[in-house]
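Bump. Still looking for ABC transporter ATP-binding protein C-alpha cells.
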Amino acid sequence: MNEFTQRLNEVENHLQHNDLYLGYRRLIDCVLDFGEKSFYKEIISYSDLYYNENSTSDNKAKKALELVEKLKQVPPPSFQKEETLISTNNVEKAYHRRNFKLHPITFDLKSREVVGLVGENGNGKTTLLRLICGELKPTSGEINYHFSNAKPFSFELKTKLVYVPQRIEVLYGSLMENLQFTLTCYDIYSEENRLLANVMLARLGLWPYKDLQWRQLSSGYKMRFELARTLLRRPKVLLLDEPLANLDILAQQIILEDLKFLSQSIRNPFGVILSSQQLYEVEKVSTEVLFLEQGKLKIQGDTNELEGDFTIVEIDIENTKEELLTALSKIEIKQIKFNGGSYIAYFDNKISMNNILSEIGKSSLKVKYIRDISKSSRRFFVN
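Sorry for the wait, here they are.
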C-alpha cells in the first residue's frame, strides 16, 4: 500500500468514527498533496457544507467519504524522500555587552521533522533561531543549508527558509487579498491562485473568517493566518519563535498537531524548529527536543550520571509527602523533591512506570496527575 492510500484510509477511519474535525483537516492535507484544481474546488465546496450550521454530522461525514473515494481512484502523488535540510556545526554567538554566550550548538534538521526548542527566557532560543535564519552571523562555527545552493543571508535562501517571529508584522487588507498577493509573488495566478488561497484558509481553521480584514482577527488567529501565508510559500524550513504564546491550550494543541501533519506532506515536506514555553505540548509532536540552559545545549535523550541511574516520575497528589513515601515503600523512592506544586520522585532504573502505577493502585493516594519524565526535557527544569 502506498503512503497516499494509507493516509486516505486514516481519513476514512476518522470520518467513520465521527471524528469529523480531524478527518476534515487530514482530508485537506490529502487534497493539497494531490495538487489538482478539480479537487481544490471539491474541498472548497465541502468546506461550505462543513461550516453550514444546518448540515448534520452524518451528512458531513457522508460527503467527505465520497471525496475520499474519488481521491482513491486517481494515481497517487510521488512521495518525496526525506533529506537533511540544515546542519549546524559548533555554532556559537557571543554578546560581550550582555555578558551572554550561546555555546557550541551541533544538530541536524531533516524534512518531516519537528524540533522543539525549549528553555527559560534569556537562554538563547531566539538567538539560535535568528542565527539559523540569517538575521545574525555566528561568532564561530558554521551552518550548512543542504536544500539550496544559495549563499547564506541571500534573498534566494530566505524564500525557502522562513522565520516567523513572536511579534508578527502588521498587514492591511482582507485575508484573501493577503494570501492571493503572497501567491502572486510565487508565480501562481488566476484561478489556481484563488482556489489555493481558499484551501489554505480552510486548512488553518480560518474559513469562518475569510471575509474579514486582517485587523479584525484576534492575536491567536493572526498567528494562524501567518502560518497560512507562510505555508503558501512552500518553505523547506520553517522557524517559529513562540507561536503558541497567544493561543489557548486547545488551540496550542491543534496548531502543533497541524504543523506535524503539514510538515509530513507527501509532495512538499519541510522541517520545523519552534521555540516554546509549552513543554508538554511541544514534546508530544516533536521528533527531538533541544533544551537551552544558560546558552548551553541539552538534548531530550541526554542523561547525566545521576539521571541515568533513575526512573523519574512527576506526581501531584492531595496527600502528604509521608503518605506518598508509605504508599511506595515496597519499591523504595531513592530521592524526592518538591517542585512547583508537585513531587519529583526518583526510583531505581529497574523500576518501571508500570511497577509504580501498580503500587499506587493498591494505595489510597488521591492522584491528580502523574507522568514519567525520565526522558522528558521536564527533568531539566527540576530544582
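The radius of gyration is 24 Å.

Edit: fixed formatting.
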